[in-house]
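Case study 2.
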Amino acid sequence: MTDEHRSSLLPDEPLPAEVPLRPRRKGIYILPNLFTVAALFGGFYGIVMAMNGRFEQSAIGIFAAMVLDSLDGRVARMTNTQSAFGEQMDSLADMVSFGAAPALIVYVWALSGLGKLGWIAAFVYCACAALRLARFNTNIGVIDKRWFQGLPSPAAAALVVGFIWVMDDAGIRGATRIDWLAWGAFALTLYAGLTMVTNVPFYSFKDINLRKSVPFVVVVAIALAIALVTIHPPLVLFAVFCAYGVSGYVVYAWRKRKGKPVSVIAVSTDEPDEAGLHR
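Prediction:
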């Protein structure tokens, strides 16, 4: 092969550099996030209804948000659509629906009549909800999944809003001018808020496997529970969450008495700067 022939086979110009590939854009799973957005709407709806003095609808909005919040994670796991975006979205929705919304609702319903103490109690509840959610996200890798560290924010919201629902059903549309009722709402708001940031263990029900077969009597018990709730939803639901709201202290006292560990942290942490979050 001659030099002229060989040179004709070589390109006259250098090949262009390879164009870097664009990173693939991550999508968002619509099904679990649809439940999360619906739960967020329930909290927002509760606030709007409270501003208009319709506290029954306000309570229904918060309880609906609770149901939807309990479903989004299960739907994500069942459909294998978990994502970091979904986790962050769920925390932000919880802060609105179970942190800011109950605080504003109880303030409009009763605490505004107490002046400065009223809005301080509402703020303490809201701040404790934020702290509880932040601690939950921090401890998610070391917590015993069978237990919550402190009262979960949906149950705290159910305590506060459930009390309002019961009183509204009894014909009390607002408690700003009823001293004993306003102070009762004040005490309950502080109790719910501060219990969220304690280390008291509350059963999480996360070890219940819905895919497993159960005895027939369990289905009958579920049907009876639904029938019991329908008898008088405000009173029954409030009573259930009152029992749950004190159950953690009962478990804590029982474990202390038996000499058993009361911490719900499953393993130790290697982060000394955050040791206080894990005890």
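The chain has one domain: 30-206+213-266.
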